[in-house]
Amino acid sequence: MDAKTQMKRYKSHKEVEAFKITEIIPVDGVDTFRLGGDDCSVMVLAEYARKHKPEVGGYYVRYADGYESYSPGKAFEDGYFPMDRVGELSDGYHTFDELYFHRMCLFAYVVCQNRHRAWKSRQHHDGTMFERYFIVGMRTRGGMVSYHYELRHWDLFKCEELDRAPEFDGHTSDDVCQRLLADIELWEEPLVPDC
Q1: Average pLDDT, the chain
Q2: What strands, in cross-sheet order, belong to the sheet with 160-162?
């Protein structure tokens, strides 16, 4: 391709439902086919089969708006990743799981350095909590910052334990970053490890 006809490149971020087709069975007396997979199957009209020409080894795909499609196996597997394994996705350097673990370690260190304004709790302020999780937070000059972590990491956070977390102030991920950065800009004393 020359520079004039080179197309812009795109990366997909769609979430779809899909399964790998292991069998295609016509239904007797009905203009319908059953597409079977290891864990599920679906009935499709003959029109679907004529339009998409599904083959064993390819994928039946359903988009969020209900549109049904077909993708050859390699094209689908190169373009989509199972949601139950999203933590294994990588930017070429780190997986999501590694990055979340790094963030947790860094926040545990920040909490350790700021014990006088940090807390952790097994319950939100209203007594609820996600199963097998706890919340840890810290007061900043701009307001609260907090994260949820699995209970197995409870002991990593060296700070005050509360029966219930302070009331949530509605902070977003952007708010957390802005509040932490604002505190860094105002910091005058050097950090001295006490953990």
Answers
A1: 86
A2: 143-150, 133-140, 118-121, 160-162
Q: What angle do CA 179, 185, 189 make, to 5 degrees?
A: 110
Same domain for 59 and 27: yes
Q: Using CA atoms, how far apart are residues 30 and 85, in angstroms rounded to an integer?
A: 38
**pLDDT over 70 at 191, yes or no:** no
**Could you tell me what percent of the chain has a pLDDT over 70?**
89
Rounded Cα gap, residues 10 and 21, in angstroms: 27
Which residue bears the tokens 């490149």?
9
Distance CA 166, CA 117 (A): 12
Q: 44: Cβ–Cβ under 8 A, 6 or more apart, which residues?
A: 32, 33, 34, 35, 60, 68
Q: Tell me whether residue 194 is in a domain.
A: no
Shared domain for 45 and 111, answered yes or no, is: no
Q: What is the mean pLDDT of residues 34-54?
A: 84
For residues 108 and 181, membership in a common domain is answered with yes
CA distance 88 to 96: 6
Measured CA to CA, the distance from residue 66 to residue 13 in angstroms comes to 17
